[in-house]
Amino acid sequence: MAVDVELSPPAIARIRRLERIWEEPRGVLGWLTTTDHKRIGLLYFFTTLAFFGAGGIEAMLIRTQLAVPNAKVLDPNAYDELFTLHGVTMIFFFIIPMTVGAFGNYLVPLMLGARDMAFPRLNAFSYWLFLGSGVLLYGGFAASSQAPACGWFCYAPLNTAGYSPGHGVDFYALGLIFNGISSTVAAINFIVTIFKLRAPGMSLNRLPLFNYAMLAVSFSLLFALPPLTIDLVFLELQRKLGFHFFDVAHGGDPLLWQHLFWLFGHPEVYIIVLPAFGIATSIIPTFAKRRMLAFPLVALAELLVAFIGFGVWAHHMFATGLATTTLVFFAAASMMVVVPSTIQIFAWLFTVVTGRPEFRAPLLFIGGFIVFFVIGGITGIMFAAIPFDQQTTDTYFVVAHFHFIIFGAAVFPLFGGMYYWFPKVTGRMYHERWAQASFWVTFVGTALTFFPMHIVGLLGMPRRVYTYPSGVGWDSYNLSETVGAYILTGGLLMIFANLAWSRFRGPVAGADPFHGGTLEWTTTSPPPPYNFPVIPEVTSPYPNWDPPDRERDRRRLERGQLVLDAGHETTASTVRDGLLDEILEMPSESWWPLVTAACITAIFAFLLTSHFAIAGIFALTAALAVVGWHWREPEEPEPA
Amino acid sequence: MSTPSNTVLQSPTGPVATGRVAKPNGLWGMLLFVATEATLFGTIFGTYYYLRFTNAEWPPAGVPLPSVAVPLLLAFVLAATSAPMAVLSRAAQAGELARARAALVAAMVVQAGFFAMQVNLFEDDLAKFQPQGSSYGSIYFTMLGAHQAHVAVGLLLDVWLLGKLARGLTSYRVVAAQSIAFYWHFVNLLALLVVGAQLSVRV
Amino acid sequence: MRLWRPRLSAEFLQWFGLGGAALVWAAQHVIGFGATIARCGAGGARFGIDLHTWELATFTTALLFVVAAEAAAVVTVLRTRGVAYDGPPPEGRRHFFALAALVGNLLFLVVVLLSGLSTITFDPCRQA
User: How far apart are CA A278 and CA A302, in angstroms?
Assistant: First the structure.
């Protein structure tokens, strides 16, 4: 419904009732017990930003060490620890929780027309688990001064006790198993929410593209995390209990580690980039002022990238000596996986070209994203050719490729999305000119940091080296990359300074400053705890561009239909066709998610320090917490 | 269980579904959880076969072949508990509390017996060869141990459900019964697959 | 001879059109890759696995299913011709998924061809 219309006293009374039912306690208590998906999204946002800062500092130390040949800023072991931590932090503690936990959590229920996620307490639980895993990992490194130094992929046999004594690799393994629980639980929550909690009328062909991306990401997480978990369990069994999985002498195989790791690792990179696609497909129609061209193909492309992405893993192993007949499956799939992304690129470009584009900051970031994604995609496709890959594997050419994708293609849309949804989340508008300037500085910094890596890689510079000799022709490229990194840091600081300043001093934005198409723009900025005063009814994927439907919503608010002000309720739909199925009573604020997550953190902490009995006691308390969590049941729905 | 009266609504596509048509959220949650656990086991089975085909001798010299009769019988006995679990699920949905409780108890007894026997067999195997001796031992005991862990979790879920059903049937508890029954169908299927993998070495 | 023509529901055709090719490619991929690991590994020699036969079998089966899925997608698109992709379900939803499947299945056709044709011609265990 339109937000600025006059409402009758009964309608206003209904809204007041909703406010009373849905409001959460104020202050720290409210945040600790929250089950509101928007608050949880914000918790994820700020926590992941802290990890982004840590990963960024690690990157700057690496680049500073590599600025000139034979530098002595870092010794080799410190360098190895830093690039390991940089990878682990950026992937597991920044990008996934930011895209899925922050953007996903905040926006998915709003775009679906729901009042919360399907399992609100499970949502809080996944956040507290994430926080616990991050604190455990970094706390462990700090307390013991031991960090893993094996790279984020930590290959066998380097990861075994013989070559990596000490606790670093154990922190890595247990920390990531722990982190994986958080993501798995979140994925289940997203899938059930997207399947079951859609507004009436939102059949699968009317699902907004951002939600298609989140659905693809969630299924990917569900199926990609188990191989990693098993790989890490095998590793710890080998390190701690002397099992044999990866050592040839006792019938193991180091390649087993790689197969299992990349079975996770490749879908992981699509998990990283898919939400970025979702953000791009949300921003483009708004600023091009038209629907996404070839909407069904774009939706399918998002699902296809995730699906085919499970079949390409051994392209990370083209240089390991496997048979051609083994590798050819992966070369073929790797060549094909680029096609859905290409479909999307053409759809995005043609949507902009055939629309009436307004190049405000969010769209500029998407423009930068497209530039980096095309270049990164081309180098990716080059790797699908086995002979080329065998020449460039383990060189800086690979580093260039994946940073163009991870930074250029996954992170640029994040900044675009931060600007785009900033008015919705805060109720204030960011400073436009400053935002556009921050784009250009970040763009130049990114290009200068990562483009020369292609050249220096082709000139033979290997990856993961703590320094390099002078006079081989790599010096000027490395120096420009470091200069670029400092410029990039400047650009990032400009972005965050803009957001921080505008949060307090920006002009009031209103509900719908950009005239976006999806449901979050139909409600106030920021949205009330209950999201919508009346559950909307949709007849297209761009409900905010359907004024008759919004008018019908307002009339239903007046009549009291689907306002659901009798309790803490939202609607459930059928899966395929989005027909109204039942009214659900949702849980409100609770201590159980935090308590259960704390118990599980304790389990992992004591496993890390080999206090197995105490870990067992905390397992018992976690089980009791789960029983407590499920003690109270929702009210029985009334019979017809 | 149907929608309260303030939701009479003619959606643009026609009348709304009255009385729940779609699977309940809790059951969907369990389905997806099972999907991720199934992937976990798929990875374990994949590892078993990968190690098998990359090792010339499997099992390695000095390691006895697994016995056939007892593990196979036990797996079938556990798989048979899918019948009372199906009765539990259906009885709960039909509101027949006594029948549901009886089916649950019957299944629980057999499942607990299976668990105890399996622990026994596990210890017997450990006396004959160790995971620390070879990759065969490592994957063998990991595979069996992972399944046992899932049986143990299933038993805990049974106990919890029995506690809930002791105080009557609600729509929440019906969904719980359906979900836990589904979890057991998964664990029971796994029992057959695990014993199949275990015994495939005799092929 | 009377040909028995089962009446396949519109719903089945839509889902088979969308998922059939994808699932059969996944099967060809896993079985095909698995067969090479089995054949070329140290423990596989004694089973006498004829790699080319396995790959040919999975390749031809996959091709058949991909073509069938594409046919199902075409039939569904034609039957829902007049409906907009965001039209009311179930017709609108079927049109939407069938349109998507129409393009997606071509992709799977190419992947199946690429991997199948190479594995039935290459030397079984030669290192890359």
Answer: 8
Range B24-202 has CATH code 1.20.120.80: yes
Query: Between chains, do A227 and B39 touch, taking CB under 8 Å as contact?
Result: yes
Given a contact cutoff of 8 angstroms between Cβ atoms, the answer to whether A309 and A270 are in contact is yes
* Coil, strand or helix at A106: helix
Asked if residues A97 and A48 have their Cβ atoms less than 8 Å apart, the reply is yes
Tokens of C91: 């017709």
Taking CB atoms and an 8 Å cutoff, what residues of chain C touch B54? 37, 41-43
- Quick one: closest CA in A to B175, which residue? A633
Q: Is residue A353 part of a domain?
A: yes
* Domain interval for residue A156: 9-358+510-629
For C108, the domain range is 12-119
Contacts of B60 in chain C (CB under 8 A): none
Other CB atoms within 10 Å distance of the CB of residue A248: 14
Which residue of C49, C103, C105, C113 is the best one to mutate when testing the A interface, meaning the one whose CB has the most A CBs within 10 A?
C103
- Residue C118 near chain B (CB below 8 Å): no
Among A295, A326, A577, beta carbon nearest to C90: A577
Q: What is the C-alpha separation between A105 and A36, in angstroms, rounded?
A: 9
d(C-alpha B87, C-alpha C120), whole Å: 50
Q: Cβ of B13 and C44 within 8 Å? A: no
Q: Which two tokens stand for residue A277?
A: 């696609």
The answer to whether residue C5 sits within a structural domain is: no
> Tell me, what DSSP letter sits at residue A292?
P
What average pLDDT does the segment C51-80 reach? Answer: 95
Q: Under a CB-based contact definition with an 8 Å cutoff, are residues A88 and A172 in contact?
A: yes
Residue B138 has its nearest CB partner, among A244, A577, A637, at A244
Q: What confidence tens digit (pLDDT) does each residue in A450-459 have?
A: 999 999 999 9
Cα–Cα distance for residue pair C73/B127, rounded to 1 Å: 58
Substitution target from A205, A307, A343 for chain C, most C beta carbons within 10 A: A205
C6 touches chain B (CB under 8 A): no
- Given a contact as 3+ CB pairs under 8 Å, which chains touch B? A, C
Q: Is residue C61 part of a domain?
A: yes
Q: What three-state secondary structure class fits A393?
A: coil
**A376 occurs within a structural domain:** no
Burial classification of residue A626, based on how many CB atoms lie within 10 Å of its CB (0-12 exposed, 13-18 middle, 19 or more buried):
middle
Give residue C48's region: left, alpha or beta (phi > 0; psi -120 to 50): left
Q: Which residue of C has its CA nearest to B11?
A: C88
C62 located within any domain: yes
Domain count, chain C: 1
Mean pLDDT of chain A: 95
Residues of C in contact with A204 (CB under 8 A): 89, 93, 96-97
Beta bridge partner(s), residue B15: B10
Helix (H) or strand (E) holding C55: helix C51-79
> Which residue of A321, A326, A340 is in closest CB contact with C37?
A326
Count of the separate structural domains present in chain A: 1
Residues 6+ apart with CB under 8 A from C72: C8, C13, C14, C16, C17, C20, C101
pLDDT tens-digit series, residues A458-499: 999 999 999 999 999 999 999 999 999 999 999 999 999 999
Q: What is the pTM of this model?
A: 0.96
Question: C127 forms bridges with which residues in the sheet?
Answer: A323
Instruction: Give tens-digit pLDDT for C90-115.
Output: 999 999 999 999 999 999 999 999 99
Note whether B54 contacts C89, CB cutoff 8 Å: no
Chain C residue with Cα closest to B42 = C30
CB contact under 8 A, B55 and C42: yes
Asked if A472 reaches chain C (Cβ–Cβ under 8 Å), the answer is: no
Candidates A153, A124, A325, A324; CA nearest to A231 is: A153
Which amino acid appears at position B20 of this protein? R
Q: In angstroms, how far apart are the furthest CA atoms of chain B?
A: 73
Q: How far, CA to CA in Å, does C104 sit from each of A101, A194, C81?
A: 30, 23, 19
